């Protein structure tokens, strides 16, 4: 299957899910995760019509963005060390992994209040030890603190569901993130509109969309895995 075939199929699936659950399919953005593939393969995704590319490593973003340019929006989806912020800050439009104040502080310092960065606060809904992100009860106080960093715009929440055989088991996790997102959006914080949900990957994006995902991060099912 070419990337174009995969993209067409995923888009058709998203359209049918959205119709079934009564959502506008325009509200779902597909982020093609290119961390397992070459720059050439990422170019195929752009040619197929993908508008968002995601990488989880600083080197991955630097390398691909240098050859592919900014015809697409770049998403940083992995954990980010504060000392590496300066390397990616000029390349990215979205940060999906804001999980601590020291990172917010560094981003804010680099942007010098001249610009804002659209960020998702990463939440560890499942509470698995191995997952990064804040525990659900920490999210609201954390977001309140973020008002001290004017360059941070909290557009939403992000989570990674645990890998399970039966992906129906991820549904409660997505539901919980949606509830949390709504409870924050309700506060009407200027620095944290929190209207978006980054959730769902190759194996569980169908369920994530049923539960309200607005950004799905799809690697393997879209561009494949060359590693
Ligand atoms: C790798 C990765 C993805 C995509 O994973 P696939 O299963 O290949 O779709 C999504 N989100 C994050 C944070 C990732 O690191």
From TrEMBL:
Family annotation (Pfam families): Ala_racemase_N (PF01168)
Cross-referenced PROSITE patterns: UPF0001
Domain Alanine racemase N-terminal: 8-225
TM ranges: none
Top-level taxon in the UniProt lineage: Bacteria
UniProt modified residues of type N6-(pyridoxal phosphate)lysine: 35
Sorted UniProt keywords: Pyridoxal phosphate
Alphabetical list of SUPFAM superfamilies matching this protein: PLP-binding barrel
Stated family: Belongs to the pyridoxal phosphate-binding protein YggS/PROSC family.
Function: Pyridoxal 5'-phosphate (PLP)-binding protein, which is involved in PLP homeostasis.
NCBIfam families the UniProt entry points to: YggS family pyridoxal phosphate-dependent enzyme
PANTHER family: PROLINE SYNTHETASE CO-TRANSCRIBED BACTERIAL HOMOLOG PROTEIN, PYRIDOXAL PHOSPHATE HOMEOSTASIS PROTEIN
Name of the protein this chain belongs to: Pyridoxal phosphate homeostasis protein
């Amino acid at each position: 299957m070419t990337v174009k075939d995969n993209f067409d199929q995923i888009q058709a699936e998203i359209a049918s899910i959205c119709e079934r659950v009564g959502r506008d399919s325009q509200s779902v953005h597909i982020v093609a995760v290119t961390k397992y593939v070459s720059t050439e393969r990422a170019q195929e995704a752009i040619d197929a019509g993908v508008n968002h590319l995601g990488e989880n490593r600083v080197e991955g973003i630097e390398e691909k963005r240098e050859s592919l340019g900014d015809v697409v929006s770049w998403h940083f989806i992995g954990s980010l060390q504060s000392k590496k912020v300066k390397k990616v800050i000029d390349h990215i439009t979205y940060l999906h992994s804001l999980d601590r104040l020291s990172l917010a502080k560094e981003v804010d310092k680099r942007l010098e209040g001249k610009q804002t960065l659209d960020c998702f606060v990463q939440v560890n809904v499942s509470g698995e030890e191995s997952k990064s992100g804040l525990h659900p009860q920490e999210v609201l106080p954390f977001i309140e603190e973020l008002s001290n960093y004017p360059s941070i715009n909290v557009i939403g929440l992000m989570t990674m569901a645990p890998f399970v055989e039966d992906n129906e088991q991820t549904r409660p996790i997505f539901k919980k993130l949606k509830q949390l997102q709504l409870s924050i959006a309700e506060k009407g914080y200027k620095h944290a509109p929190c209207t978006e949900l980054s959730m769902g990957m190759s194996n569980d994006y169908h369920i994530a969309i049923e539960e309200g995902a607005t950004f799905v991060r799809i690697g393997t099912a879209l561009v494949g895995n060359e590693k």
